[in-house]
């Protein structure tokens, strides 16, 4: 087999739709042509391969829809007599690329896009058409898709936003934009981009290669225009005609710099402030406008002139940036009617290099408006004084107040009775004289604090107050007296001249020169044979004994009246009595006993021992009495005889119902044994189950049945759980101690009454009528 060789290694081959091989130059028209680029040639020996083909085909990307011939495969075995078949395999074989089995022509069946896939690797083989047996080994080749300018530039990150300070210099960089082109940057100029500004001139410029946007105009002012819209274009093919382009927008914002000072809208401003405006309250507002924004627009206000008395202050409202004028001191229309202030507004932040004055001033005229003010006291606090015990209506002092207004209304005075609850003072409503309504006692209250109010006659709502402190001056109206209740003790074996007691005095008064007391015995005892007094020189005296013959048997107690006089004007005095007891003392002078009964006591027994002995005797007597009483109670029966256990139980029902529960109104069993009141006893209004012992006469210590019944009745009346029925019960047992026995006529021991009831008349008024009834019954029987 003769081999076919290609001598042109890198010649361009163009295959027509008819399969004819023609040599042409590279075409760039709209019609897609197949170009066969021979990257090399491969010659197979006759023993291995009888055919030769290109190792690489170059095909421009196209958009279809008709199939395009890529190239043709040929082998030396194809002489016409041998049935051969060309087979294609690899990337896109059968889908994108198809081969004519007989001629070996390869066609592209679908759209080829380099940006999606730039090259395809396939294998070709020659087989027997009848047996499908391979006639030669398979060989690999590449189909490369060549780029054309079919993608415009794109701004992936657009649209853009940028900012730059106002008044920036020309050439100041604003931002940088970036466009991308999907075409092959290596092949031709399809991906070479050039930038330009379509909108935004003359304010901005852009570098055509680096795409950096810069300031192009000097003195751009934010206050004139804050935002600019710039349109940027990117064009491929180096910007030449026929290239594709893309655009984006850049929004440029000028940021504020402090290039404008604050400015008052009016250089002169007027305010009217009432004189009764409270301290700290706003009296007016001023504002300096600043064209800047944010921190650059913040200003501070100051009063730089016209406020020599320091009456006003001005502060800045952080929200509105207004200067608020406030009072630091109260205004007085009568003193000063107007003020002229010079107020300055200055930026907090400013550029010192700018050289511009970032401040402004304005003149503020303030007119004080007259207001109806309350009366004003001549002093906020008055201090007065008055003697104690001064007579009623004594003038203590005078308070004065006036109306500060120009009209000068009259003033009336009153005492706030909340500060004078006892109404000890009065005030003259016209002239403010304070007088006494009650006498004062310094020893009770030394100071009195009251509040006096002053009110305008024409406007009662205008009230002012003043505190009046009244001091009560002391006079000598209290007599001195002993400092305490003295009780002196005198030993029987005392020596003459012995100090029995030291006595001092006190005085409720408080003289300016201090206290000085004079002590003396009453005139009747100036020649007292038993005691005398001695002045100690310190407002105290010592009581001395004159002899040593004091005896308790003779006189146990002495009373020594002493007169105490002060040095007041007039002097006050009082008589105080010193009690002196005569006592028995030890040799050391220690008091042992002051009672005269001590002399009759046996020698060797003290009073405590006698008390203990007497207590033991009384205790023994109590024990003996209790023992005898218990023995007597033990010998008495607790249950009465059955034959005398007769009683009548009459129950009256005031309403229906109740039944057998009515019989539980009272517990009669307690009458069978009064000593068992606190224990449980069975009911006796039904047939008893117990046999009782014969009743004996009750002793004198028996229970008072009448009192017992009254107690039980009271308990039943107040018991909320008792049946709500009225019961009348007559009891046959009268209690221990009753010599009458049973008074019931039921179940008596004999049918004939042989008893004598005359003794009932001796029991007193309660049983007298009963005795008469039984006596009448006996008379009728005999009759």
Automatic annotation (TrEMBL):
Sorted alphabetically, the keyword list is: Calcium, Cell adhesion, Cell junction, Cell membrane, Glycoprotein, Membrane, Metal-binding, Repeat, Signal, Transmembrane, Transmembrane helix
Gene Ontology MF terms in the entry: beta-catenin binding; cadherin binding; calcium ion binding
Q: Which SUPFAM superfamilies match?
A: Cadherin-like
Cellular compartments annotated: Cell junction, Adherens junction; Cell membrane
Q: One GO biological process from the UniProt record?
A: cell morphogenesis
Where would you find the membrane-spanning parts of this chain? 599-628
Write down the membrane topology: Single-pass type I membrane protein
Tagged with keyword Oxidoreductase: no
Q: Which GO terms describe its cellular component?
A: adherens junction; axon terminus; catenin complex; synaptic cleft
In what residue span(s) does the Cadherin domain sit? Answer: 75-155, 156-264, 265-377, 378-482, 482-604
According to its UniProt entry, what is the function of this protein?
Cadherins are calcium-dependent cell adhesion proteins.
Q: What is this protein called?
A: Cadherin 8
